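We were asked to recover a plausible sequence for a given structure. The inputs and outputs are reproduced exactly as logged, with field labels preserved.

PROBLEM: sequence recovery
POSITIONS: 76
GIVEN STRUCTURE:
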């Protein structure tokens, strides 16, 4: 979806999260926010383990970073 939306692939975003400390902090903040915010959402609450919930929130955080990059490049 990210590549269709903004041309940035998941691999590129993962590379940025690993290499850029600001992007790493952004990713961790998004992921933590999602874990706290979605804890009562039925789809999240029904996942079998905390690890599964964390993995889903991480995937969503990567998507959020991709959308942020798209919006930032749109303003340039």
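RECOVERED SEQUENCE:
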């Amino acid at each position: 979806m990210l590549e269709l939306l903004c041309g940035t692939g998941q691999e590129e975003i993962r590379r940025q999260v690993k290499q850029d400390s600001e992007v790493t902090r952004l990713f961790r903040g998004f992921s933590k926010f999602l874990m706290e915010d979605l804890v009562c959402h039925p789809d999240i609450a029904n996942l079998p383990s905390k690890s599964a919930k964390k993995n889903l929130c991480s995937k969503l955080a990567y998507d959020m970073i991709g959308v942020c990059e798209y919006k930032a490049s749109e303003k340039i």
